[in-house]
Amino acid sequence: MSDSLNHKDKLTIAVVGSGPSGFYATEALLKNFPNTSVNIIEKLPVPFGLVRFGVAPDHPKLKQVIMVYNRIAENPNVNFFGNVELDKDITIEELQRTHHAVILCYGARSDRDLNIPGTSLKGYHSAREFVAWYNGDPEAQHHKFDFSHKNAVIIGQGNVAADVCRILTKSVDELKKTDITTQAIEQLSESKIRNIHIIGRRGPAQAKFSSKEIRELGELSNCSNFIEQQSYVIDDIDKNQLSAPAFADIAKCVSIFKDFGYKKDSKKQHSIEYKFLLSPIKICGDSKIESITFMRNRLTDNRKAEPTGDTITIDCGLCFSSIGYRGQAINNIPFDDVKGTIINDKGRVINKQGTVITGLYTSGWIKRGPSGIIGTNRADSVETIETLVKDIETLKQKTIEENAFINILKAKKCRYISYEDWKKIDDIEIKNGSIIGKSREKITDIDKMLSIANK
Ligand SMILES: Cc1cc2nc3c(=O)[nH]c(=O)nc-3n(C[C@H](O)[C@H](O)[C@H](O)COP(=O)(O)OP(=O)(O)OC[C@H]3O[C@@H](n4cnc5c(N)ncnc54)[C@H](O)[C@@H]3O)c2cc1C
Fold first, then answer.
1. Does a structural domain hold residue 402?
2. Best mutation site among 21, 106, 365 for ligand 1 pocket (most ligand atoms within 8 Å of CB)
3. Which of 179, 374, 446, 449 to mutate to test the pocket of ligand 1 (most atoms within 8 A of CB)?
4. Residue located nearest, by CA, to atom 14 of ligand 1
5. Cα distance between residue 241 and residue 393, in whole Å
6. Which residues contact 116 (CB under 8 A, 6 or more apart)?
7. Do the Cβ atoms of 223 and 270 come closer than 8 Å?
8. Average pLDDT over residues 133-144
9. Ligand 1 atom 13, closest CA
């Protein structure tokens, strides 16, 4: 669709969050209405969300998508406001008052709960905390991980768990050229962890890994991958499902598991053991984790896990729960507490009674939940903007004072970071990295980021 608005009608739209969904929403907006002024509001001084703080440091190719985001940000109609947090520096009402529409793309920054006793013990963490820590997220640098025990347990069998496994088993030599923080490399180089147990609630045919990630674990140079024989169950229902085209990638995973076999290769320094059909019931220890007790499960015909009554206990000193990220509610934005998402219909935010909130939209993980790859957010944002386009005549009715948004930030003395400011931080990170042979040395301290931006 071409720009149907004349200059007088120029829209000003706020996009909250500068992860993939925020950038793709901006791209789709500008494609539909090239004259639209887009204010991207980001709580951190640095952009890109989980592309910077989630995607694994040893997968640099995936971060090349940043070049696409740079092109979007460099459009003269796009203004980046880093270091501005919705609900802290600015309220949703202020954003609504100063924009024709607000698109909420603020991702999922919390964890699904394991809901068992013992999660307050030292040594228990969510995979999200660990991932954010080694990726240099300023909000995760206070976490302390105890790598002194030889056994670690990861609860959950998805791609985030696979990332965690690689980071725990790769050598310093393999990580030192990536953008993992130097602090993480130093601590991981002292790690005594040798055996990782990676646990799934259901069977091998229900694991959530992609075959690419599992194959990569199988290729780790100094790590033996093997499966627990007792829990490796593929029954006739599984076999039937796995033969369907929709299950082709899972079938590949299952075949890779089979190739791993049941035996640990003790010549290798590390091992990853895949255990299936186990649900954690208790994390045990005095002040820190000593072991975790699991219930053995069987699968019902509709592939639900049900307890058998048999239990197993695994000794460990560190446990990462990797059962999913979770979105957080923000004041005065309708929220589905069960799904952890903003209530919406094809991106249009609606309240609990189903009434549309005019001018409020959402996209990405906070819209649909924490699933899908970077590219999934493009289609998701396109859907949201298609919805917005349908509402355009209503949105145009609103009168917005020029500079109203910036004036609020100035009145609140909010030090916002422009894209040029971010580029200064970016340059220094790349320069600091190159001195020590890394692609980038991330700055992990917000004050330091701000002082670079102020220069
Ligand atoms: C560990 C991990 C590894 C992954 N690896 C891959 C991979 O290898 N390949 C792949 O394709 N996908 C990968 N993904 C998935 C991909 O990262 C997500 O699909 C994508 O980042 C979701 O985009 P989003 O914009 O919805 O959320 P996010 O990327 O989380 O972006 C949300 C943004 O909103 C900001 N924000 C939050 N709250 C506020 C607020 N109150 N005010 C202002 N701003 C706010 C955040 O700081 C953040 O910048 C991975 C995900 C994780 C967790």
1. yes
2. 106
3. 374
4. 373
5. 48
6. 280, 281, 282, 283
7. yes
8. 98
9. 373
| Distance from Cα 363 to the centre of ligand 1, integer Å | 11
Distance CA 127, CA 111 (A): 9
Q: 3-class DSSP state for residue 322?
A: coil
Task: Report CA(19)–ligand 1 centroid distance (Å).
Answer: 5
Give the model confidence (pLDDT) of 81-137 as tens digits.
999 999 999 999 999 999 999 999 999 999 999 999 999 999 999 999 999 999 999
Does residue 320 lie within any of the structural domains? yes
Distance (Å, rounded) from C-alpha 390 to C-alpha 375?
Answer: 24
Check if the beta carbon of residue 5 is closer than 8 Å to that of residue 95: no
Q: What is the CATH number of the domain that holds 301?
A: 3.50.50.60
Give the residue from 44, 99, 95, 83 showing the smallest Cα distance to 414.
Answer: 83
Q: pLDDT band at 244, cuts 50/70/90?
A: very high
pLDDT tens column, 151-174: 999 999 999 999 999 999 999 999
Q: Which residues contact 131 (CB under 8 A, 6 or more apart)?
A: 53, 54, 56, 160, 163, 164
Q: How far is the CA of 266 from the centre of ligand 1 (A)?
A: 38
Residues 344 and 408 in one domain: yes
Decide whether any atom of ligand 1 lies within 6 Å of the 160 Cβ.
Answer: yes
- Residue 418 C-alpha from the chain's centroid: 24
Give me the pLDDT at residue 454, please. 87
Question: Is the pLDDT reported for residue 449 higher than 50?
Answer: yes
Give the mean pLDDT of 400-414: 95
Count of the separate structural domains present in the chain: 2
Q: How far is the CA of 249 from the centre of ligand 1 (A)?
A: 24
| Dist. CA 449–CA 112, nearest whole Å | 30
pLDDT digit string, tens, across residues 319-336:
999 999 999 999 999 999
Asked if the structure places residue 453 within a domain, the reply is no
Residue 224 beta carbon below 6 angstroms from any ligand 1 atom: no
Among protein residues, the one with the nearest Cα to ligand 1's atom 33 is 17
The protein residue whose alpha carbon is closest to atom 35 in ligand 1 is 17
Q: Does residue 403 carry a pLDDT above 50?
A: yes
Domain that holds residue 218: 111-325
Which residue has 């640099």 as its token pair?
Answer: 60
**Neighbour tally for 445: CB within 10 Å:** 11
Residue nearest to atom 18 of ligand 1 (CA): 374
Q: Write down the pLDDT at residue 5.
A: 45
